[in-house]
């Protein structure tokens, strides 16, 4: 059976924890500037494959193989199962939100939903012009491409020139695919679907849907990815590449391919790009939307489920095809593949008949679907494959999230992560260097409706009104609350290792969990910032102070780094140790030892004299990022105009609050950092030394 197969051997509500630890040697310990990185050819190629609405239980290895053993309807993913057996399977990996747009925004920008500019159901909202996977890797010397579904272009405009956040305006060198969110609901762009018209599809800035007669998007996106990878290797074989392959399947409409998947794979087989009108790829066919995979054709199933199973199988074929291409190009050993999904399983068909994820238990051993913050809505199947670097056959149940991939890829590219990221590099966990992950898992989301009344779900979850929802992990436990009315609403608390179905609510069961309840309520106020377009009932609540630490001394701690960074960095991702550490009375740049290419991370506590609203204002010569607790209050980094004052306002409770300012200086201007505040009884002024402390 093997390690991976063992996952599926228990009952629906049971879980097996399997982990291994292998120390990887050869991960570079040096930190390089972006310009130096361009000369380093050892950085791995990176392919992130994102499926649309693929449930946690929709892979053979995560649940379908178990259903086969039990004699229940099941579908198969043989190639993805094999990939997982040669990789690490992350069994508690969480999306930013349980629906498409905010989930993808958190993935791309490396921030959770407490900081993302796309929240709730803000489909087609412009992704803010800040650091993201593409822009960071491009600065590190990567060639960057996206193939597939975007949906973050901005609601104004109707062309690549007028859309505010077209992919090529957000760090991608190349774009091929659907721009609008809704376009991905029709998988034949040149044809009308049951409930959808023809859709626009872009190659660069050219709209090409009229050339795509008989073309199925899952095949098209695989072929386009293969072409872009091959072209990258032909044109610039020494330059690493990053490909974001965002399939629009298996989300509805429940359309299937026109014909069997072409035999073979890679350079000579599988789907192939031809580029001719009405014969754009070799898998195009004049008869569309009628191919049911032979494994499902004769099953006694309603047709919508045969269609869904065939859609998933097509992705399985496509991933194997791309893997073969990497082998043919002799780059498989230096390519990291990450496979995942954007949220839990859907129950839409868009004109193809009744469909529910219960037929295959697409949520696996979990409860909840798309738009639920139960595990089934947020936890997604995730595989990371990097031959020779990620040990084979490993399963890890450490909680991690979509916002961790940006610092992970930055780590692999040899550049520090931006200071605004909420994530932490997964490289030590993936390679087996460490067993633990230092990141956070947090989500907030609002939507109407209820959790479905599926008999597979625990009775306490059925019909649960959604409304304002929030999830946080603390001390290894999941806190979740629904239909939130105030910051004092209690969390339900679950041990999702022993209880993946979230049946046993531990809240209030002991003094330990009573204490955890209060710490969860405080934690979620300390790690997020309000967004005026996605209001929450706790937006105006004062952030709780921390218990006054022992051994408090006046002044602020600092770490000084003499490094060049392409942006204001998260100093925990800098490979070098600080050149010097110490304390300063205030945020003083005179502690530096040179006038160019240095980073100072100030860290300590600010004493708030009275509960109320406080505004902080900052200006710098190049860049600075300010955090209070884990909340990003001021982001004067990407796009910052030097010398401009930027302000942030926050409600703070009387007492001590952790504060961190990361300052980055280059070589163009004289070092400068100014910080002021105002609040109850305080006119706008520099923060006095009597308010700043550090822990001795």
From TrEMBL:
InterPro entries for the chain: Alkaline_phosphatase_core_sf (IPR017850), GAG_Ulvan_Degrading_Sulfatases (IPR052701), PA14/GLEYA (IPR037524), PA14_dom (IPR011658), Sulfatase_N (IPR000917)
PROSITE patterns found in the cross-reference section: PA14
Domain of life the protein comes from: Bacteria
Record domain PA14: where: 551-691
Pfam families: PA14, Sulfatase
Protein's recorded name: Sulfatase-like hydrolase/transferase
Gene3D superfamilies: Alkaline Phosphatase, subunit A (3.40.720.10), Toxin - Anthrax Protective Antigen,domain 1 (3.90.182.10)
